[in-house]
Amino acid sequence: MIWLLFLLTLDPRYHTFDEVAYELDSIANQYSDITKLDTLGYTDIDNIPILALKVSDNVMVEEDEPAILYIGCHHAEEILGIEICMYMIGALMNEYDTDSAITYWVNNREIWFVPLMNPDGHSVVMSHLDTTWRDNKADNNNSGSFELEYDGVDLNRNYDFYWSEGGSSDPSSEFYRGPYAFSEPETRAIRDLALIQNFVFCNTYHSARYGLTEVVYYPWRHAGGYSPDYPHIRVIADTMSKRLIRDNGIGHYTALVGQGLDGTARNWLYGVCGVFTYCIEVSTTTIPPGGMVDDICERNLPGAYYLLERVSGSGITGCINDSTTGEALSAEVIVHGYYDADLPPRRSDTTYGRFCRILKPGIYDIEIRKRGYVPTYRENTVVADGQMTELNVSLVRTGGEQPAPSPQKKIKISPNPSTNAVIIQLDQESDFSSLTIYDVLGRMVTDIENPSGQITWRCRDADNREVSEGIYWLVARSDQIAVQKIVLIKR
């Protein structure tokens, strides 16, 4: 009976739409140098704005910086997502210029928040008309009046990626996916923002009434297979989940691969846009008592902050341009072994030609291609632990005069395989600035500065410890990068 009374009188700790709008407007005015308030669109029924806040230095400029997105309240009753977004915005504002990590992130990232994606549906919950309402207020039967028994579209089943496989086709169902994909202005607002911003990461915040709670879902398992980036997207989910402490203080959230393909935001953002997107099922219920909210938000900050940190970790990034004009190009970036030709291509952006692919440490073969240009291949690209590998590429137009390729500088390794030492022989004209040896996971083993002539590596790391048997990669850098494989066998 006490719980029922709570549902009928929501704690004032939870934001109304007017409070969200007022706070965002106040923040945008007070911190105008690092925030910009934008309207992504308007709802169909109540004509309420769908608000977004951008946080970054030089906030009025589209800078060459990685972008991260946080979304709250796809589902109207799941109001904790609003609180987490608003809490995080407040923390960034309060600690900018005092906390070194937050200051760095704001200055070197473009951070976007859509705290209240479903304001029409949210009004149903906050007015106590139905505190378990999930959908927006779409007029499914065109009656001209809102009917709880028949109206509303489940916004997280309305995205155009296997749309017909998700949700329900029954307009009276709370899982109704809508009459067609992107039928709703709320999902179109997210679509249009994502297609422009080229996000690297996204968290969408939910709080389950059905299914598992305190979970981090990621894309996807379907028909016996996984998403092409599964190993890389999974390790992010695993790491993020371990930073999210459960409500009871015992243990942390669980990372799980989402089952099936459907019209959800998570699968559309990843499948179509290439954004590593995670669905965070916050807390153990949809609307916990207001006294719990601040603690829940505080415990969710480490997971949200992790994405801001991880975007400059291991992976590949660079800019692609026209070799003649220098014009930035939107080109397809393929990481062989982590590619699905049935998905839309993963492309660099149109403003800077910038791409960013999150990868585990390792050795990768990269292909960059664009119609009308000669494809470029970068084999044996080393991705080291904890840093982005820079891979800037100038594409040459087809049909024109092709510049002569630079002669490949030679490196000889002997014996290879080896048991205890290898001789590295550089050709006489080489001018490599450094030689670095990495293990198979991309971790640096040792570094040789100012190399020339013949060098002996005695299979020891930078601390003179004997390395184990296995595969190692020698990377030589100058105006070119040359890579050689070393196989070490212990007897």
Structure description:
The termini are far apart. The longest helix is centred in the middle third of the chain and has 18 residues, at 293-310. Strands 1, 2, 3, 4, 5, 6, 7, 8 and 9 form a nine-stranded mixed sheet that branches. This protein has three domains: 2-310, Aminopeptidase; 316-395, Sandwich (Immunoglobulin-like); 411-488, Immunoglobulin-like, CATH 2.60.40. The chain is elongated and about 80 Å long. It is built from nine helices and 23 strands. It is α/β, with parallel strands linked by helices.
> What is the strand content?
25-35%
Number of helical elements: 9
As for the number of domains, it is 3
Q: Which regions have little confidence, pLDDT < 50, spanning 5+ residues?
A: 1-7, 401-406
End-to-end separation in angstroms reads 73 Å
- Judging from the principal axes of the Cα atoms, what is the shape? elongated
List keywords for this structure.
491 residues; alpha/beta; Immunoglobulin-like; 4-stranded mixed sheet; 27% strand; disordered N terminus
Q: Mind sketching the topology for me?
A:
Layout: H1 2-8, H2 17-30, E1 35-42, E2 49-55, E3 67-72, H3 80-95, H4 100-108, E4 110-114, H5 119-126, H6 185-197, E5 201-206, E6 215-222, E7 225-226, H7 230-241, E8 254-259, H8 265-271, E9 276-281, H9 293-310, E10 315-322, E11 332-335, E12 354-358, E13 362-369, E14 376-383, E15 388-390, E16 393-395, E17 411-414, E18 422-426, E19 434-439, E20 444-449, E21 454-457, E22 470-477, E23 481-488
Parallel strand pairs: 3-4, 3-5, 5-9, 6-8, 10-15, 10-16
Antiparallel strand pairs: 1-2, 2-4, 6-7, 6-9, 10-12, 11-13, 13-14, 17-18, 18-21, 19-20, 19-22, 22-23
Helix pairs in contact: 3-9, 7-9
